[in-house]
Amino acid sequence: MNDAEIIAQVLSGDVDSFEIIVKKYEKMIYNLAMTKTQNRENAQDISQECFLRAYKMLRSYRTESAFSTWIYRICQNLIADFYRKNKKIKTVSLSVTDLSGNDDESKERDIEDTESEPSEQIIRTEKIEKIREIINSLPNDLREIIILRDLNNISYSQISEMLDIEMGTVKSRLNRAREKLKEYIIKNNKDGELF
Questions:
Q1: In sequence order, what DSSP letters do the residues of 83-112 get, joined into one string?
Q2: Under 8 Å CB-to-CB from 58, ≥6 apart: which residues?
Q3: Element (H, E) at 135
Q4: Is 190's pLDDT higher than 80?
Q5: What is the reported pTM?
Q6: Which domains does the chain have, with CATH numbers?
Q7: Computed over its alpha carbons, how large is the radius of gyration of the chain?
Q8: pLDDT tens-digit series, residues 60-91
């Protein structure tokens, strides 16, 4: 079922179908909130509020735009509200985790490999941390694009709609973000390995 069909079911009284929407978009929404707040608890709160608002406002959703765009904008508005209320909190960059709520568990799942030696797992964990540092070093506009495209696998057209920018701008920012990541890797490559 596509989003419109699921939403039609929810609006016709099948409230449980909204869980399908939550599961489909929870990673994208959480990653956006983490990108902007750099705080797991705040990101979780914003994510939960985003889905609550989306549910309450579901009748106002218009199918002319993708649901992902609509819920992304709800999340952006909640983040803006969060910063208006907490002006002394500074925006910093992304830490990619899943919604388990425990960064350590997320890292373990990212590197879990029953065939690997413990030393290989440690090296892989260090590489994951370095990737996070590299992504964190990007300017907000580039970081946001790379998260949407490369971590959340959102299409160029959806990103264009979500961020209200031209498709060419999406592609050029993504290219610049990837180039900056490449430069960082080359600059910090000491042993001839990727990191």
A1: HHHTTTSPP-------TTS-HHHHHHHHH-
A2: 7, 10, 11, 18
A3: helix 118-137
A4: no
A5: 0.59
A6: 1-88 (1.10.1740.10), 115-189 (1.10.10.10)
A7: 18
A8: 998 888 899 999 999 999 998 998 888 754 44
